[in-house]
Amino acid sequence: VAYTKFFSPEEIDRAAPGNVPRGGDKDRDVYVFDNDELILAVNVALVTRRPMLVYGPPGSGKSTLAANVARRLGWRYYSEVITARTEPEELLWKFDALQQLSDARGSHVKAADSYYQPGVLWKAFASSPDAKSAEFDGEQSGASLGAAVVLLDEIDKADPDLPNSLLGPLGEWRFKLPDGRVVEAAPNRIPLVFITSNDERDLSGPFLRRCVVVTLPQPTREHLVTVAKAHLGEDFDAEAATAVADQLIAIRRGVAEPGGHGPGTAEYLDALRACRELEISVGSPEWKLLSSATLLKRYGGGEGR
Amino acid sequence: LSRAHEIFLGDLARALRVLQPTDQATATRVARLLGLDVKPVLAQAMSTQPPSTRPASDHRLSLQEQPQSRPQESLLLERRPSRPATIPSSLSASPRTSHTEPTWLRTQQPLAVTEADDAPHSYEPLLKQSWSSGILVNAGMRLVRSHQVDVKAMVRTLGSGRTPDRIVFRQRWSRRQPVLLLLDVSPGMSLYHDDADWTRKRLTRLFGADQVIAARFSRTPLLGAGSGARLTWRPWVPPIGATVLLFSDLGQGKPPFGRMETGSLAEWLEFGELLNRRRVNPVCLTPYRPGRFPESIRRRFVIIQLGRRTTPKKVRELVGRRER
Searching chain A, which residue's CA lies closest to the CA of residue B3? Predict the structure, then answer.
């Protein structure tokens, strides 16, 4: 260990072996932390209190990272998938103007603040859930909350105003609601924010300069086999896992489309599970069909075909 | 955008203090993750000194801007021919009156040509580099209906005693619509071939590869446009309400040779009329200043000069005025 690790998945798993996900658990609950650079990046983001911007090819584990860090740290977890229609303030709050208008017509309008619903960052900043978010999350109102992990997935899909509107809240860990209330994260409960990007569009310089940036590499054969072992548990077959991993890497190399990536980890696990359940061995005539359906798909490619 | 809260050296100091990296490689990785290009100051010293004799202060890091040893320069100096140690007689002697070749000239070797001299010059865009993203994004964005109710508009309606017959939503700028990019390859634009290529590439990075549909044309798009060979070009008509960006001189640039043809004012006005009928607000990126274009053209096209004085704010104003 070349530094003091505040987030060390290995140590956390060793301390609580009962919590280590095993084969048969949901895929999103299993994550293989075999990338030292990634673990260092999580530690740097934790101690500098900076959001972590994660790049990487599809299937490299960008989106599942946040949930698994949250689970290992024992922190709350909130996520939001960004689309072209996501508006900047929706990550902070949502105002139900139509409900207010409807209530006004019936002459039973409530106080203005009751029409604000918390967005993911409001929930993550809050140290105790208010009535509205408690109701939303099934939590007990008034109970003290721990720190939270937030995932903002696929930020490159958003309009430029969205990342720029996050500069303030993610820099100061506070923001103001239109009715004047201030939502602020307690100093000892600063959330850890993961932001993922498929690099389809450039992000603004000021946004990049506020983030710890890490790029996940293409999965290697060793990584894929380790992932298979973690996911399949007792059903793990090293020979099949290696053969399927080699096939996947060959397809990825042969992807002709510029910017194309080929199959990812999820497709690799699908192929392995199908092989196991259907009792198809790699190299058999059926394997070609299975490989075509689960790995090759319409990616094209040379060697894998 | 404020520069406050950007990652700075304090973040690096905090990370190093808390994480306590035991080697320089890890410290450098931490700095790189924070986007700070830090190099070990005493990397050379480390290579010459045994680690055990190295003082603790050797672990200090410095920003790249600080003076560093310059091995590349010394390499260049070594490659140059050695100069004479004494002052050439031509500098100390009185001026000659004859025009014969001086004797010292024959003893001199030509100046050394470095690799940097041979390297092709890098492309310099017409726009100010730091503003280019903002300018192009603002040129390609359009106003769309937001999810937010326009409370002020609703209050105005109610306050004037009228019953609202519809919910009014606020508008916001968005790049969700695909951008149809038309690149002018007329002879008059031949000087700006690299700029057209740069514009297309930057727009693709800013809007996404699947959101920018580029086509080339000569004279005007009405005579034919397309992404393939000229023979395949067809008269170009945009979809209704499309976002259209032109990279063109709108017929104002002079071709390098007199007999070459370029789009006439009448042709461009006809194209502008067509766009108007299709409810398209065309934005034209051009190397020329707007004042050079006739009033009739300026009424039909938003003219944005690709120049160092163009700012993102100015572009937002010009496009916004037409959108509203």
Answer: A206
